[in-house]
Specification:
By secondary structure, this protein is an alpha/beta fold. The chain has a domain of 155 residues: Rossmann fold (3-Layer(aba) Sandwich), CATH 3.40.50. 31% of the residues lie in helices and 18% in strands. The strands form 3 sheets. The protein has a 7-stranded mixed sheet with strand order 1-9-8-7-6-5-4, sandwiched between helices. It has a two-stranded antiparallel sheet with strand order 2-3. A two-stranded antiparallel sheet has the order 10-11. Strand 8 and strand 9 form a beta hairpin. Helix 1 crosses helix 2 and helix 7 packs parallel to helix 8. It is elongated. The protein starts with 5 loop residues before the first strand and ends in an 8-residue tail after the last strand.
Length: 290
Amino acid sequence: MAKSKKIKIEFYYDFEKIALEVFDFQYNNNVVYQKYVDLVFKKNYQPKNINNIPFLPISLFKSHKVISSKDAIKKVFESSGTTGIETSKHYVVDINFYNKISSYFFESKFGQLSKFEILPLLPSYSERSNSSLVHMVDHFISKSNTKTPKYYLSNFDELTQKINSFSAQNQPVIIFGVTFALLDWAENTEKNESKFYIIETGGMKGRKKEIIRDEVHFILKKTFPNAVLCSEYGMTELLSQAYSIDGDLFSAPNWMKVLLRDTDDALTLKSTTNRGGINIISKPKTWDKK
């Protein structure tokens, strides 16, 4: 959507130290990243702080195989390709790690997945087995209270009936929905006062006119006045997500940092926090092997 997304971030105490260590690892183990740094900066370039770290453009995930490990690839996530013919690809060697960090941060914001009934409204995504969003939702469903998993496309009446049934039983419900489908649902459904969560994942996918997020939430609130409206921010190229709960302020995990760059000069960071291109550092925690 057109509105800039505000993200609140909690950092590691030694985030900068870890980020510089990650730069060294990526530079020495990722051929594409090393060539990019050598060409744009210089060979054996060494940043002094976070602001000096080179950020790999997303376009290279479309044209090159970006990977930093020699381990076997377990999963390839692919972007939807709605903005062009080429799609970004993310080669994942440890899918369990992705499952763990995505559910860890989600539960830190919403509570244990085991208490929720999860109903996905993700047409154009659910047909794609290589969607990182669908994989995440599938994993969440496997940890949830959902007894009969089902993806909803345009069967809005059935979805509404499910929500009403769970609401009558005081069963917490989360709807994961792509924006255009949520709007179609709201526009083709009578006012419903059930209490549940709506997590919009963004994206008109060429189905509707792009509108700002406040307008999307205004439309949804007219049909679902008691729903808690939330948003999820994620990308195929990342393993981390950020969430907004009932407001426009996003919260990211403490292993993720967002910097704004000048839209006219990709190598220059902005000193103010208004609008700009987004650079993201993401270094998930190291987990115990329990």
